[in-house]
Amino acid sequence: MLMRTDPFREIDRLAEQFLGTTARPAVMHMDAYRDGDFFYAAFDLPGVEPESIDCTVERNVLTVRAERRRPTDDKVELVAAERPMGVFTRQLFLSDTVDADNLEAGYENGVLTLRIPVAERAKPRRVPVVSNGNGRKQINA
């Protein structure tokens, strides 16, 4: 048996490890940011049907699960299969500074966007400063 040397085999192995394969899809890419009284998390999920997306919050762990499927029609002949298929999962650990009970999710143009309000107890608040008349200041919080 002859074996050919493939100089790109190690590069392919590393790419599969970081980017995933069709059997083990890569991680869903995400951006997260805060804008005023809300945190946002945007996940790239192109080609995913909205009904296959599942968002759950248990304790302080947010889990996003989505599935991308290939056409299953018997008449379809697959010529190339380069896009990762299967189930994608990502977990985020939420801090106590967010109100996970009022999380909102929307899916548009292949992007799942989660809107998570900042908890009232985590918002900045003004502390009044009062004087007791003898030049000393007393802070009531």
TrEMBL record:
<dbReference type="InterPro" id="IPR008978">
    <property type="entry name" value="HSP20-like_chaperone"/>
</dbReference>
<protein>
    <submittedName>
        <fullName>Hsp20/alpha crystallin family protein</fullName>
    </submittedName>
</protein>
<comment type="similarity">
    <text>Belongs to the small heat shock protein (HSP20) family.</text>
</comment>
<dbReference type="InterPro" id="IPR031107">
    <property type="entry name" value="Small_HSP"/>
</dbReference>
<dbReference type="InterPro" id="IPR002068">
    <property type="entry name" value="A-crystallin/Hsp20_dom"/>
</dbReference>
<feature type="domain" description="SHSP">
    <location>
        <begin position="21"/>
        <end position="133"/>
    </location>
</feature>
<dbReference type="Pfam" id="PF00011">
    <property type="entry name" value="HSP20"/>
</dbReference>
